[in-house]
Amino acid sequence: MSVLNTVPFEKFHGTGNDFFVVDADDPVPDRPAFARTHCDREAGITLSESERRGADGVLFLALESRYDPPRVVMTLVQPDGSVAAMCGNGARVAAAWAAERTGTNEVMIDTPAGTRRASLDGTDVTVEMGAPSFAPRDVPLASDDELVDTEVEGLTVTAVNTGVPHAVAFVDDVDDVDLESVAPPVRHASVFPEGANVTLASPDGEGGFRQRTFERGVEGETQSCGTGAVAVVAAAKRLGRVSGDDPVTVTPPGGALSVTVPDEGAALLGGPAVYEGDGEADIVFRER
């Protein structure tokens, strides 16, 4: 491994889902190697302001402030070096980063999954997430039929795409499940040709849900997953566990998120985006 230079970064988190943010104007020649090196939970970057080493991904953000509202092009490179098409908490962080630089409270976010509108109220950011889809082509599935409340590798799941594919399982108590054991077989199941995030949900007793997610690309559980929170509510509506267009509280380990999945149109994801600190990171040129 050869180090050429350093690049400035900032660190943010959205309900515990943490990211290094790098301005795309600062060139990083090998983004996958950069993410694999610095996101590592044992050997990656640590900040004195942050208790956690590494991160759930690197957001490379390109600000286009000449537009009204301003636009930011978001590329999320995950700890395994892959690029995620969409990340709800990452999009909220991208909006906070762009708003800080433009002084606006509305931002358009260009992602591989499409353009999303975000609005800000202090540290709270709400982002449009697109319309969830259960269609086999959209998830995608290696099947012509939707996967709804069906057993896959010992877990009863509903498959939905909320920007990325999720296999959602409703259980009595998310804390009673050994997620690191049950999730990988589902994540790699043949019915998911591109893999799937595995999300567990259980009722919180107040009309919402508790959530845990094993993320594809991170290859482990994260403190929060925004696309997973939307997937929980979308699947809950599909199974008749909730109804209507009112916001539903979904609580992963990192904190509460507000999710609205209307009968028609884009879902909404709301919650805090918090700045943790900044620093300089080695630009990783090559891994051996």
Automatic annotation (TrEMBL):
It is an enzyme of class 5 (isomerase). GO terms for molecular function: diaminopimelate epimerase activity. It comes from Haloferax volcanii (strain ATCC 29605 / DSM 3757 / JCM 8879 / NBRC 14742 / NCIMB 2012 / VKM B-1768 / DS2) (Halobacterium volcanii). It comes from the Archaea. PANTHER family: DIAMINOPIMELATE EPIMERASE (PTHR31689:SF0), DIAMINOPIMELATE EPIMERASE, CHLOROPLASTIC (PTHR31689). It catalyses: (2S,6S)-2,6-diaminopimelate = meso-2,6-diaminopimelate. Catalyzes the stereoinversion of LL-2,6-diaminopimelate (L,L-DAP) to meso-diaminopimelate (meso-DAP), a precursor of L-lysine. The record marks H166, E215 as: Could be important to modulate the pK values of the two catalytic cysteine residues. Homodimer. The active site is at C87, C225. GO terms for cellular component: cytosol. Keywords: Amino-acid biosynthesis, Cytoplasm, Isomerase, Lysine biosynthesis. It is found in: Cytoplasm. Substrate binds at N17, Q78, G88, N89, N197, E215, R216, G226, T227. Gene3D superfamilies: Diaminopimelate Epimerase, Chain A, domain 1. Pathway: Amino-acid biosynthesis; L-lysine biosynthesis via DAP pathway; DL-2,6-diaminopimelate from LL-2,6-diaminopimelate: step 1/1. NCBIfam families: DapF. Its main location: cytoplasm. One of its GO terms (biological process) is lysine biosynthetic process via diaminopimelate. Its EC number is 5.1.1.7. Belongs to the diaminopimelate epimerase family. The gene is dapF. This is Diaminopimelate epimerase.
